[in-house]
Amino acid sequence: MSGDKPAPVRRQGFWSYANPVKFLGFSERILPALWWLSGICLAVGLIWGFFFTPDDFRQGSTVKIIYLHVPSALMAINAWFMMLVASLIWLIRRHHVSALAARAAAPVGVVMTLIALVTGAIWGQPMWGTWWAWDPRLTSFLILFLFYLGYIALWEAVEDPDTAADLTSVLCLVGSVFAVLSRYAVNFWNQGLHQGASLSLDKEENVADVFYQPLLVAIAGFVLLFLALVLYRTGTEIRLRRTRALLARQRRT
Amino acid sequence: MKALLRRDLMLAFRAGGGFGLGLAFFLIVTVLVPFSVGPQSDLLARIAPGVLWLGALLACLLSLDRLLALDLEDGSLDLLATSPLPLEAALSIKALAHWLTTGLPLVLAAPLLGVLLNLPGPGYSWLVISLALGTPALSVIGTFGAALTVGIKRGGLLLSLLVLPLYVPTLIFGAETARRGASGMDPSTPALMLAGITLGVISVMPFASAAALRINLR
Questions:
Q1: Which of A38, A116, A227, B218 qualifies as a cystine partner to A72, CB 3.0-4.6 A?
Q2: What is the per-residue pLDDT across B75-91, written as a single tens digit (0 to 9) for each?
Q3: Residue B169: which of A163, A171, A185 has the nearest Cβ?
Q4: Which residues of A194-207 are buried (b: 16+ CB within 10 A; e: fewer)?
Q5: Chain A: residue whose CA lies nearest to B147
Q6: What is the rounded (10 degree) CA torsion for A90, A94, A97, A98?
């Protein structure tokens, strides 16, 4: 099609960001925008949610913790899913940035899980009369928390960075299978107190519209915050690795 | 393969400690339970299936540390990796040897310890069945954990952190089978799920273990 003209420089599109230099340049350009957007979304969503929505007729004002609970729970799972995709990319295409992004996402994910667990407990105490119940949803989140801890511990324990990336990727794959398996296994001992999905596409189950809109804004804020944190932490990991390489070279000469 | 199995079994029998240790640990955990929750026999009867499952799981975990570490130290792991036998097969055999020396004795000892915990009559057969179905999965998953942590100094603690979350589904279905059996409900559904998990794990997990071990031996 291009005939005998010199071929234009082939655009690699998405994969060109696997180059650390290009990745750093790109993330530095969009990070300020991400920070601002996530800050604005969080502020709008949370302030709108906390101060400008009516109290629920049954739950009173405690319902407002939903603006922290639901987005963090959502991100806790999606962070693991993102790590799974990044691990697969590392295993298949060997892009270092991908492995580092998975490493960078894990602590963010574990904090999200912790926020979801803690806000859930604070919400559950007045609603169910208990801080904790061995309910499928709660329990599977606790297990997800343990998976995150193991994943981070394995990253810390292996010295060689490539070996660590390989091992944690394999663990992430196997862990995902078992996380799903545990999720359905825990259904076996209790049907639980937790309500069904509040944001499914099935309109019947959803929360009322007054709560829905600020919730969406808060979720957008959490997603943007997660992206910003992961990009930022990935950049830090890349620089750390460069520093280590420079130090090693200096020691040799 | 037979030679490898025979070698691993011989080592476990002769090395002292390795073989009986899991059983002794299982016994001690079971004996400690009445001290910690109180000796009311109806309470013990209710929690017996879960306690026995937990004890078996911990006893399995205890011996995982030695599964590959000793072979790495004396170099036989490198020989295994370069031998014509696929690494997946070698690790399956090692998991089998681990089950024969740790899991099988636990299965056989569980009814005796059930007496100590006042396990109700119909529970015994289902306890043995659930352990027989579930402990192979524990060995195979444990082999994966051992392969992940084999090069790491003081990997034992990390090993338990990595492996215990993976044990959750097996534990849930195993203990559920034993509990339903003990309380006279129909335990066939969780038993089938447990069997499914075990078969699935046996068929897929050796590949993950071999992948992890190859990375560690690189």
A1: A116
A2: 888 888 888 888 898 88
A3: A185
A4: eeeeeeeeeeeebe
A5: A167
A6: -20
